[in-house]
Amino acid sequence: MKSQYDLIAIGAGSAGLGVSIAMKRLGFNVLLIDRYDHRIGGDCLNDGCVPSKALIHVSRLIHSAKRSQPFGWKVEGKTDLAAVMQYVRERQDSIRVHENAAYLRETEGLDVELGTARFVDKQTIEVNGDNGSRVVSAKNIVLCTGSKPKMLNADGIEQVKLHTNETIFSLETLPERLMIVGAGPIGIELCQAFQRMGSQVTVVGAEERILTKELPDVSDLLQKRLTEEGVIVKLNRKVKAFPDANTAELELENGLTERIEFDAVLVAIGRTFNFDDLNLAAAGIELNDKGQVKLNDYLQTTNEHVFAAGDAAAGLPAGQRYFSHAAELHVSTLIANFITPGQVLDKKLSYDHFSWVTFTDPEVVTFGLSEHELKTRKISYERIDYDFDHDDRAVIEDYEYARLILFTEPTGINPFSTRILGGTMIAPNAGELAQELILAVQQKLTAGDFFNKIYPYPTASRVNKSIWVDHISDNLPGVVRKAVKWLY
């Protein structure tokens, strides 16, 4: 292997794989470093997106089977969690075929080093692995070291077997009583999955509602759906102590306490970082007061030759986005800037067109600018709410409760010219249904573009037009109505 590279990527998760493969295909000499071969693919493949969505898929099959009983089908039995987790591992292995050191070396032509990376100076890395150590350097280095679960702090915690997203998929027996600490996306997705498979799940959240990054009415609607399935949700509470290995003592806002009994605990209270092994000080890389790498708008650290992407870029001025597709955005921004001559044309990282999905049932998708961001930037907007209770596909498939909320430019004299600024949808398969709306935000499509599209009946995506049909018919200026009538 060489000792001098155009680019070194430390960490082979979504960001590391993305930036190293892309730069290699563009003709650059690239070195990718990760600690272990089985960790290539990062959190997404090993502990996050892939296993969780496989688990959710199985739980939906089980739930659908149970819902068939009113139509004459008899469903009996208990979930074989060992079989479920075997399915999860098989799905991971299918993806791991093209996310391993040998494949990357042979197929992508990458240099891959397995071992611990440590900065020697601003552009030099020492890699210590099973085959000894070697020193390498590069014009630019990208930190793609990810994040790790934040741990719970409570008295008596040492006597409890706590799970995080890194260990929960190793369970072989379904817990009868599962307590999940944390009401964010990870906790809420897995609470529904385990409830559907047969556990009695209790979610404990410190905030006043679940999914605090979503609109309050969307959070409330999803919580209602979860409780209807049997999930117990306890909010405005913190875990104070564990009196024994199967009991948690919760502290309420008013100082009172209550106890919950459990067989297993999943902790999903956020993410944190550990950069100790990297020796960042030797490279002149500073951390902020949250322990995140200090970054500018271009994903550049306090060392002009070192950048960050993926979860490691949580210190961005634009904020943190713990998603695999956030890593994609970081990578595309970095590559565009790497191959642009000079820094004048470099583009800043922006989340204005970003979106995310919480894969519950119903799914929640949020995209574009939020209402909070619109108010902060003092951007004029209108909010349009659309209930699915008159949508024929929703009536057929029993999801009339669903909702679509759009934030749009203020309606002018020509409502057909109105553009979408952002929005949220909560509905089955919302992540797929909203892709058209996400594209509309990015490409600045207008209400007229939706209004003039003929959707096959009764496709679920017709709601993307129906919301405009209702809004335009309700807000067509009187002068326009008179002109149309006169022309007729």
From TrEMBL:
Annotated GO molecular function terms are: flavin adenine dinucleotide binding; NAD(P)H dehydrogenase (quinone) activity; oxidoreductase activity, acting on a sulfur group of donors, NAD(P) as acceptor
Q: Which positions are annotated as binding NAD(+)?
A: 182-189, 270
**InterPro entries the record matches:** FAD/NAD-bd_sf, FAD/NAD-binding_dom, FAD/NAD-linked_Rdtase_dimer_sf, Pyr_nuc-diS_OxRdtase, Pyr_nucl-diS_OxRdtase_dimer, Pyr_OxRdtase_I_AS
TM ranges:
none
Disulphide connectivity of cysteines: 44-49
The answer to keyword Metal-binding applying to this record is no
User: According to the record, how does the cofactor bind?
Assistant: Binds 1 FAD per subunit.
Which keywords, in A-to-Z order, does the entry hold?
Disulfide bond, FAD, Flavoprotein, NAD, NADP, Nucleotide-binding, Oxidoreductase, Redox-active center
Which parts of the sequence bind FAD? 53, 145-147, 311
Q: Where is the FAD/NAD(P)-binding domain?
A: 5-317
Which domain of life does the UniProt lineage start with? Bacteria
> Entry's Gene3D superfamilies?
3.30.390.30, FAD/NAD(P)-binding domain
Cofactor requirements of the protein:
FAD
One Pfam family linked to the record:
Pyr_redox_2
Residues in Pyridine nucleotide-disulphide oxidoreductase dimerisation domain copies: 356-462
UniProt family annotation: Belongs to the class-I pyridine nucleotide-disulfide oxidoreductase family.
Provide the protein name: NAD(P)/FAD-dependent oxidoreductase
Q: Which organism is it from?
A: Spirosoma aureum
